[in-house]
Amino acid sequence: MNKFRKPMGLILPLVCILALQNNSLYGNVVKTRTLSHQKSIKIKRFLHPMPQEFRLSKVIYQIPVNDCSININLQASSGEKRAIDKFKEHWLKKYNTALKQTDNDLSIIASLSDNSSLLQSADKKRLIDLKYLAERPNSEQAYLISTAVEKGKVKIYVVANTATGLNYGLLTLEQLFASLSQGNMIIFPQVNIVDWPDIKERGFALNVGGQALYDESNGLLKRYADLKLNIHYDTIYMHVDDNKMIYYSKVLQKRREGAEKYFISAIPVLSHMDYLFNPKLNALSNFSEIAAVGKIGKRIYGSHSGKTFCYSNPKSQIIVDQIFEAIAENKLGNRLQVWMGETPTCCHCSKCKGDQRQHFIREIKHILHGYNKALAINPKLKLDILFTQATYPYNYDIIKHIPKNIGIDIYAGSGANNTYKSRFGEYYLTPQSEEFVARGYVTGGLPSLGPALGWNDIAYPAYMSQMAKLRIAESKNRGLTRVVFWMPYIFCEDLNFNAAAEFSWNVNGRSSREFITAWATRNGMKKPAEVATIIKKLEYPIRALTSGMRTRNMVKPIKRMVSLLNGKKSHWGPYFEISKGFEYSNHAELVRTLKSCEQAVKMAKTLKNKDLIASALLLKEWIVIVERYTLFLTSKNAVQKAKIREDIKKSVSALPQLYKNWIELQQLPSRQFKRANDGFNNKIIKEFKKLK
Predict the structure, then answer these.
(1) Which H or E element spans position 483?
(2) In 3D, which of 493, 546, 489 has the Cα closest to residue 672?
(3) SS3 category, 240
(4) Does the bond joining 7 to the residue before it have cis omega, within 30 degrees of 0?
């Protein structure tokens, strides 16, 4: 726990304890109790993310719900009112009693730091420290919570520099109340908090499952808000009318407005310039006159559609300008992210000459020209550019053309492996990221915490809290401003959502084990510390298996495995060896890992936790397959090899039912559930059935 660097944090608990002991000075105080060690632990576990500076005294207040009120500044801004109204709405829903707006035994004073004379008085009394608050990193999101006793009544100050910070402070106050309160009695501790995020912009990019993922009705935005995430990338789909005029759906406006309600920026994403020719995603497949030309007799291998722009064609700039103008005209907000092409393909016409470097330089020039057209319509529009695995070799050439007021995101490195890496001891960011930060660019990263190995394929659960912590620590250490977890999959484990939010706010506040224990406590699980032990036992094999499966190419390692088990050479080389993801690529390591999974199964059964049981059983069977396979590779005994093949076939036959038991507990919408089942049975099991 961090200690306060200002006297405020040391003085306030002492002041309040003296107040409680000196009723002649303060009058009759509200009912209090002494904070026990167990309750102290519970309070800390209910806080998420863990605050940067947090101090508890030994006092607990106990006040009836009907004796609580909130003081509102009459000159409050619209954002300030929105944060307070949301808090009041949550209070009414939880306690079935509206918060009063008159002084009471408990008064919540929620205000911005610069617009309340009451706060200036509290600052002079050293009950709060407004200067210290203003000096915090990412101060526009910082807040403080301070409890004081005055004339026998309790006051809770929730103060922030902006409405966004106030919203976060009130969310933390809700968590403090939820930790101990019972029935119609508000029970809360004497506490001092000063808090701010490590990473300025935090969120997810969820892409598979359709646009319904972002509808307010399914609760995703509220889930973001409750975790103090503040951005999400929203892929935009282009339409073309009969006159070849480009436009965007009005649904995007509604989603943006819904996000703003929760203090979230819904940033529209123009997903990869070469994707614009994919008829399933966009409509430029009809604009053949601007499509790239391939070598004679050879197809252009562009993303999905096999096409990309011929940027030497003047009509390409006209179309790119129309795209940007349509985005600005449809009022999709004041932020836009454009992802550059992700496949190493380019035009081979007489002007382009198949020069990949010049292709991407022309692409960024087209993007910037279109952006300037959009600025004429919306002068407030801010642009971010995503560098991809295809641009990676040319990023230093591309960035020469990008002004410093445009942000940069780093997706992957060579071959996209960096973004999706789960192997231990490997970074996801390249040295370029630090160089771009040093040059003055606002820079972000897109790591992944995917439980899937392909767009529609989920093979097993993915608990990756430690990986989230490491990815964010790396991002912070390299000076990144933004971390958006890229999830091109069907769903994201709730644990991973929470871990990404926790560590992007405060990367050093908790260890991975402490975080899991807190997560399990908030979710009402029995014996949270044991839940953490089970998940910690499973994370290593999950990450190792995911790395060995070569993310998004999982069928290839299985094809290699089946070929070798059948005594044939494999078209897929050693790169796709499934055991390579483990710390030691040998049979002894797999035996050790299998024992760990077996222990996790036993512990989960003892806890009678259905989800953990299903998760551990499924993962254990996968490890059995890999363990048997690694033994097969080293065995020279034909009889033993035949026995190993039968063992693997037995485990493979058990996978579908184990998978069904697990996936049904994930409560996926019917569409995603079908895709998951189809991907597992029609790809993974289909390949395994070729085993003789």
Answers:
(1) strand 482-487
(2) 489
(3) strand
(4) no
Residue 234: φ, ψ to 5°: -120, 105
- Do 461 and 539 touch, CB atoms closer than 8 A? no
Task: Tell me which residue has tokens 């506490």.
Answer: 191
Helix 512-522 with 494-505: angle, nearest 10 deg:
120
Burial 535-559 (b: 16+ CB within 10 A, else e): bbbbbbbbbbbbbbbbbbbbbbbbb
Task: Give the whole-angstrom CA distance, residue 656 versus residue 232.
Answer: 34
Q: Rounded to the nearest 10 degrees, how much is the dihedral formed by the CA atoms of 218, 223, 225, 230?
A: -90
Q: Are 193 and 12 in contact (CB under 8 A)?
A: no
Distance from chain centroid for Cα 678: 26
SS3 408: strand
Q: CA 592 to CA 417: how far, in whole Å?
A: 27
Q: What's the half-sphere exposure (Cβ side, CA atoms, 13 Å) at 633? A: 21
E strand or H helix at 565: helix 555-565
User: Is 308 in a helix, a strand, or coil?
Assistant: coil
Distance between CA atoms of 49 and 501, rounded to whole angstroms? Answer: 7
| Alpha carbon distance 633, 650 (integer Å) | 18
10-residue mean pLDDT profile of the chain (692 residues): values are: 43 44 42 88 96 94 93 83 94 92 88 82 91 97 94 92 97 96 92 98 68 50 89 75 58 72 87 72 63 62 59 91 88 89 84 92 97 96 93 94 96 54 72 94 86 58 89 94 76 84 97 97 96 96 79 77 92 84 90 97 97 96 96 95 96 95 83 77 88 90
Q: How far is CA 619 from CA 26, 224, 622, 663, in A?
A: 60, 29, 5, 12
Q: What is the pTM of this model?
A: 0.90
Q: Which residue has the tokens 């205000």?
A: 111
Of residues 508, 409, 414, the one with CA closest to residue 198: 508
Closest listed residue to residue 363, CA positions, set 417, 316, 315? 316
CB atoms within 10 A of CB 525: 17
Q: How many CB atoms lie within 10 A of CB 301?
A: 12
The C-alpha atoms of residue 434 and residue 71 are separated, in whole angstroms, by 46
- DSSP secondary structure code for residue 274 in this structure: G
Give the integer Cα–Cα distance in Å for 362 and 317. Answer: 10
**In contact, 489 and 37? CB cutoff 8 Å:** no
Residue type at position 669: P
- In DSSP notation, 579-595 reads GGGSSS-SHHHHHHHHH
Which residue is associated with the tokens 């490890």? 623
CB atoms within 10 A of CB 93: 8
